[in-house]
Amino acid sequence: MRKRTLKRGLSAFWWLTLVFLYLPLAVVVLFSFNAANSAASMTGLSLRWYHQLFANDQIMSAFGNTLVLALTSSLIALVIGCLIGYGMYRHRHRKLGWLIVLIYLPIVLPDIVFGISEMAFFVKVNELTGLLGPGLGTMIIAHVTFQIPFVALIVYSRFVGLDPSLFEAAKDLYASPFKRVVHFMLPTIKPALISAFFLSFTLSVDDFVISFFTSGPESATLPIYIWGAIKKGVSPEINAIATLMIAAVALAALASLVVNRRKA
Amino acid sequence: MTETSTAERHSQRRDEPHDGARSGVDAAGSERTASAIHMQGLHKRFGASTVALDGVDLTIEAGEFFTLLGPSGCGKTTLLRILAGLEDADQGRLTIGERDVTEVAPHHRSVNTVFQSYALFPHLSVRDNLAFGLKMRGVDRAEREARVERIAEFIQLGDLIDRRIDQLSGGQRQRIALARALVCEPDVLLLDEPLSALDAGLRSQLQVELLRVQKRLGMTFVFVTHDQDEAMVMSDRIAVLNGGTIQQVGPPREVYERPVNAFVARFMGHANLYPISARQGQRVTTELGELELEPDLDTPQQGGGELLLIRPETLDVRLGRHQGVNHLAGRITERLYRGSHAEFRLAVGDTTLQATINNRGRRLPEVGDEVTLVVAPEDLVTVAN
Amino acid sequence: MTDTAVLGRSQGMVREARHLLFTVTPGAAWIIVFLVLPSAYLMGVAFMTNGPYGLPQMPLSLDSFKQLAGFGFLGWSPGNLYTLLRSLWQTLVATGLVVIVAYPIAYYITTCRAKWRPIMLLLVVVPSWTNQVIRTFGWMNLLAPGTPLSSVAESLGLIAPNMGLYPSNFAVTLGLVYNFLPFMVLPLYAAFEKLDTAQVEAAQDLYATPVKAFWHAVFPQTLPGLLAGIVLVAIPAFGMYVIPELLGGGKALMLGNLVANQFSGGSNWPLGAAGAILMLLATFAGLYAMRRIGKRLGGGEEVVI
């Protein structure tokens, strides 16, 4: 009896929490279709903000920057992180404490410290050498830096989860070192590589603070544009961009659900 | 009586010629030649203090079913891994067939392994797992498919071949792993405790299957196990290892019935061992009293061992008191009834002794019974300590 | 023969070392050059003097730390101290609230059918996949003056008329709880999923009351997850920049804003760098403390994910 009351209470709490989690997003989506130029009241439905959105060059270029930044940094991080993840696995019996510290550093460092460190560093390097002026290049470097650990840890844990005999079976079955990489290792860790890529991509699109401090005048991403627009005074267009980004996340969530279903 | 039947089978097998290359029929039906293995002074250390192999000299004949037997940590797996090339020996030389492979990488050796965990590639189907070795060797597609089909038929995989790895049971995985190694037609097949993860019923079924495959192919099999029953059932010859050295090499019957030392005697089965305090001709004195043995069984090297070995099943347990040569008076202190046979613990003088009796439906002695133990001189062996 | 074998072995070791170098160097070098070096440089900046455009200059001095402690041209002012205390307080309150919400949620998910659990977890996590700025913007929409929520709060007398729930300290706390909830639910869920129910049943058998059974059998088992969650929530919350900046207005600034503003608006790099050092110290102290507690309570269990 008491158990059932508890369960009912928990269930109610669960639904309340879901409302709490999705209400802010729902409001953004709702206001994106608002006919009025107001954040406080809905007067009717309209697609005018979406029309304005696609006509806005700044937003379109911010969108392009976001994609280029996320794609490029994720690919670079995938290669470097995959190598380091495999190195950590293969040499896991050595004392690699320094490497673990190094790998965790980008994760534990507060965003803001991360961002201003990069900024101060890039400014100094630029002053001394003329290289690394703020722009997409510096942003890519910064993003790769925080993506590497996640890729490395995902790849590492995939390798650790494998039967160590598999590596020996590949050798035993006449695979040369190169063929072992192509025909055994890469196909075996493919799921890990895919999820590492998507995580890196998501982290990149999600990031605001580090992008903000490493970006240049031409390299604003969508979050930076939105931030600027909010700071200048809310423009309803923001709701429309935000809605599109939320829609992208929702699609990704659905995709991950489908992938998980298929695996099960 | 299982012991005798196994022993008989092995004594017959011992008569078969071992020397030189033995030929057999491979999965394709063509004649093939098996390879002998020579090991000379193999040493292997892990870290500074762990000695895995401490000078191993061993010859495995072509076409032989050879077993490396020993407790965990005895070096048997290390030896197998050195054969596979997965581990490098610190010292020594290894030849397979005519070729010195001491420093040859595993993917350049014509040796394949059936791993204890089977090590089937999870990202590949059964069919692609079977074809993996051939593909790596650059065998063309048509030939590959034909050979996979042939091996699948030979091992009777049936419709397993189109399954995913995660849809297979343990026994099925074992057979796929065997097929994957055999399809490469290696000179030598290595098996690292391949049956240890299976339950007893399936295990004995696969033991028979494995033996049959080996006999048909005539391939050299090197088998690692810690289970002495399995070793005796399967092997042409057994090497018993302990502490990184080979204790004894021989056919199962020899290793069981005429062990060279106490370790081998105990490892191969229940053993009653008594220090010999005095010896006069063929008569030896132990805590049990005076016993007579046959001269050619007074091993090792006929010089006589320090310990007397009496296997429990060689003792004849008779009710009541009787007199005669090798007759011992005892009292039953414990009885373990096991259906087909019963195990007894007896008090003889100041010491104890184990005996096993087959259950032939007659009255079995009970705890407290006064009995006479009779052992034939030819069943007594002396072993080194 | 023996010599060649020994040679082969040392060659193997060389090969292994080269392999380690090849796989690990690119990533390690990247992190060292683009994170360790910049952080070290930033720490150096903290010990320099503030120049005309806010940029660091020689000579070395401890001015920035004095400024951080509140000593300025006009004598001591408590502004920075308040900011620091506010950061600590917000972190504490937000973490506490997150635990209170996440604990029953994580437990509830484990009591549901296995096929629903991944979907439920996904539902909890998905909002955090959207950009932080957008999520916070959503709360701005919800809490602004004139919105239904603000009207309700107004009629209950919780806020002054026409003020709205945002900007305020309350809005910042709410934003932090919202932002970090998934980071607490996930490790707690993992802990609940591993829960040894036999222990709980034994406890019910021995201690009888549910409260005692929870305290003696359930809570200790979830502690590693709880500690991991606290690390994941409290450390980034303490350095939070976006949420106080957007939801707090000028009066609810936290340490993150103090630091960031020295690099964007106000421009005093050494002061900002000194603030960053403070933040780093707090981060590592927090990590260290959690590790110690985790080791003492949970045996060898690793607290940092």
UniProtKB/TrEMBL annotation, chain A:
InterPro entries for the chain: Bact_Polyamine_Transport (IPR051789), MetI-like (IPR000515), MetI-like_sf (IPR035906)
Pfam families, alphabetized: BPD_transp_1
Cell location: Cell membrane
Keyword tags: Cell membrane, Membrane, Transmembrane, Transmembrane helix, Transport
Membrane topology recorded in Swiss-Prot or TrEMBL: Multi-pass membrane protein
Domain annotation ABC transmembrane type-1: ranges: 63-259
Primary subcellular site in the record, as a coarse category: membrane
Family annotation (PROSITE patterns): ABC_TM1
Coiled-coil region list: none
Cited SUPFAM superfamilies: MetI-like (SSF161098)
Keyword Magnesium: no
Family annotation (CDD domains): TM_PBP2
Transmembrane domains' residue ranges: 12-33, 67-89, 96-116, 136-160, 181-203, 238-259
Residues annotated as signal peptide: none
Record family assignment: Belongs to the binding-protein-dependent transport system permease family. CysTW subfamily.
Name this protein carries in UniProt: Spermidine/putrescine ABC transporter permease
Source organism per UniProt: Halomonas litopenaei
Lineage: Bacteria, Pseudomonadati, Pseudomonadota, Gammaproteobacteria, Oceanospirillales
UniProtKB/TrEMBL annotation, chain B:
Bias type Basic and acidic residues, positions: 1-21
EC number(s) per entry: 7.6.2.11
Keywords in alphabetical order: ATP-binding, Cell membrane, Membrane, Nucleotide-binding, Translocase, Transport
Residues covered by the ABC transporter domain: 37-268
Enzyme class: translocase
SUPFAM superfamilies named in the record: MOP-like, P-loop containing nucleoside triphosphate hydrolases
Oligomer and partners: The complex is composed of two ATP-binding proteins (PotA), two transmembrane proteins (PotB and PotC) and a solute-binding protein (PotD).
Family assignment from sequence similarity: Belongs to the ABC transporter superfamily. Spermidine/putrescine importer (TC 3.A.1.11.1) family.
Name of this chain's protein: Spermidine/putrescine import ATP-binding protein PotA
UniProtKB/TrEMBL annotation, chain C:
Localisation: Cell membrane
Main location: membrane
Transmembrane residue ranges: 20-48, 88-109, 121-140, 170-192, 213-243, 269-289
Pfam families: BPD_transp_1
SUPFAM superfamilies according to UniProt: MetI-like
The UniProt record lists the keyword Transport: yes
Residue ranges constituting the ABC transmembrane type-1 domain according to the UniProt record: 84-290
One biological process term in Gene Ontology: transmembrane transport
Keyword Cell membrane: yes
Highest rank taxon of the organism: Bacteria
GO cellular component, one term: plasma membrane
Keywords: Cell membrane, Membrane, Transmembrane, Transmembrane helix, Transport
InterPro entries: MetI-like, MetI-like_sf
Membrane topology recorded in Swiss-Prot or TrEMBL: Multi-pass membrane protein
Similarity comment text for this entry: Belongs to the binding-protein-dependent transport system permease family. CysTW subfamily.
Official protein name in the record: ABC transporter permease
Species whose genome carries this gene: Halomonas sp. H10-59
